[in-house]
Amino acid sequence: MKGVFVVGAGPAGIFAARQIAQAGYEVFLFNRDIKPGGLAEYGIYPTKDKMKFGLRKQFANVLEMPNVHYFGHVQVGKAYNVTIEELEAMRPAAMVFACGAQASGKLGLPGEDAKGVYAAKDFVYHYNLLPPYAEMDFSTGKRAAIIGMGNVAIDIAHWLLEDSPYRQQLEEVVVLARRGPMEAKFDEKEIQYVDEHIARDALTAELERVKERCARCNQDVSPEKLFEEHFRRLKNPAFGSVPPRLTFRFLTSPTAILKDEHGRIARIEVAENDLVLREDGSTKAVATKERAIIEADTLVFAIGDKQDPNIGLPMGPHGYAVEPGPETTEKPHFQLWNPETDKPLAGRFVVGWARRASTGLVGIARHDGELGAAEAIEFLKNAPESNTLNEAEILAQLEKKGLRPVTKADLALLARVEQREAATRHLSAFKFADNDAMFKAIAEEREQAELAKA
Ligand SMILES: Cc1cc2nc3c(=O)[nH]c(=O)nc-3n(C[C@H](O)[C@H](O)[C@H](O)COP(=O)(O)OP(=O)(O)OC[C@H]3O[C@@H](n4cnc5c(N)ncnc54)[C@H](O)[C@@H]3O)c2cc1C
């Protein structure tokens, strides 16, 4: 049997698995989390029900394919449950790494270890109830700062302003952006979730404060233009901001985090930036010597994620090492590479955010998974028979290591319990926030099913 191991069951891994299974190969998914879905389950905003239900259904359809096998709660890596070498001993004919970008970029600032300073991914994992983040302390206070001006930053503002359990004590969320308002990266649809909180007077004053620096890059940041382009709701003269306030501070780069006597963030020292025009017409922020202090008891940094170096894959300049040379949209580089020998890691591929961190929506990760899968299938056509272990043998090997893999049958039992819980609690969906509760639910449901059969 030529079996293919896919590491990671987020959108990229699941859609790669589907394609490879459709080509007739046995596919074995190894996933860190008990449940599949990755950031589609544990990143996308909790109230985007329609999108989440749709994606869950698609993932379930893939897992229902008889030649797709699933081992959840198995983290692959030299620092984790099972190493790549141990997987290789199970004789996969090819391996596709779709493990996302799990290492949060660090700010690299003094005081970064203060309580109340959170990486965006950890924060969204927390409010999306991914164990163990779900149970960790992500408390927030009166004034929260968010670094970043993309959709993830806006999702976090949305959570803080509208849905967080700490919302009652929140007075202000301030978004800190390295560059100016014209460089905002969020989509219009996303800002609409929070724009009723924008303090118009504060935004107008902030635009006034940075207008000269932006004008040096030929940017008009007048309120009329900005409200038209980014903050349409503010065009309405009758607009009145709903508390808590949402404010922005542009041309600002944090330089240090200052703690209070309890070790929690109390203030952020920031550099004022100049905006500089590059030759290609893009802009860049350049820190000046001027400093300012921003009061904040919470800081969430949404500056993009990085590939996890603890998996054990060779690292290159932009994440895992892939085939060198220029890459085009027609020919992305999925082939993993050994930089020491300057040779391909034959039959080893990388897709999705594991290949390009923090890029785009689910549809893009899916497409990347499918293109990478096509390359893996080409390789498999000429690959020798590998006699990959079957599902029972792999399960036995994992259990011998003391692991507790979750199979497709377990996932079906868990889904039944969660659906019942949702109905009892009158919720559109329910999910357990810790692994033990999930294991208990699976065991009890299995017992019930066996009793009913007897
Ligand atoms: C806050 C946030 C909000 C978003 N909102 C939207 C949205 O509204 N709409 C939209 O279309 N897109 C949204 N996205 C983007 C979307 O979630 C991603 O494009 C997509 O999930 C990336 O897919 P992936 O499979 O490459 O990685 P991931 O989704 O990160 O999946 C990686 C998988 O690998 C597993 N894994 C990790 N490490 C290991 C390991 N060592 N061993 C085994 N398994 C491992 C994880 O358990 C996970 O299942 C959002 C992203 C974020 C961060």
In terms of topology, how is this protein built?
Elements: E1 3-7, H1 11-22, E2 26-31, H2 39-42, H3 49-63, E3 68-72, H4 84-88, E4 94-97, E5 103-104, E6 117-119, H5 120-127, E7 143-147, H6 151-163, E8 172-176, H7 188-191, H8 200-215, H9 223-229, E9 245-249, E10 252-259, E11 265-277, E12 283-295, E13 298-301, E14 305-306, E15 315-316, E16 319-320, E17 335-338, E18 343-350, H10 362-382, H11 391-400, H12 408-424, H13 435-453
Parallel strand pairs: 1-2, 1-4, 2-3, 4-18, 6-13, 7-8, 7-13, 8-9
Antiparallel strand pairs: 5-14, 10-11, 11-12, 15-16, 17-18
Bound molecules: flavin-adenine dinucleotide.
Flavin-adenine dinucleotide binds next to helix 1, strand 2, helix 2, helix 6 and helix 10.
What does this structure look like?
- By secondary structure, this protein is an alpha/beta fold.
- The chain has two domains: 3-102 and 307-406, NAD(P)-binding Rossmann-like Domain (Rossmann fold), CATH 3.40.50.720; 106-303, FAD/NAD(P)-binding domain.
- It is 33% helix and 21% strand.
- The chain has helices at residues 11-22, 39-42, 49-63, 84-88, 120-127, 151-163, 188-191, 200-215, 223-229, 362-382, 391-400, 408-424, 435-453; strands spanning 3-7, 26-31, 68-72, 94-97, 103-104, 117-119, 143-147, 172-176, 245-249, 252-259, 265-277, 283-295, 298-301, 305-306, 315-316, 319-320, 335-338, 343-350.
- A six-stranded mixed β-sheet has the order 3-2-1-4-18-17, covered by helices on one side.
- Strand 7, helix 6 and strand 8 form a beta-alpha-beta unit.
- The longest helix is centred in the last third of the chain and has 21 residues, at 362-382.
- The chain starts with a strand and ends with a helix.
- The mean pLDDT is 96.
- Flavin-adenine dinucleotide binds at residues 7-13, 30-33, 38-40, 43-45, 48, 75-77, 80, 98-100, 102, 124, 152, 155, 311, 352-354, 360-362, 365.
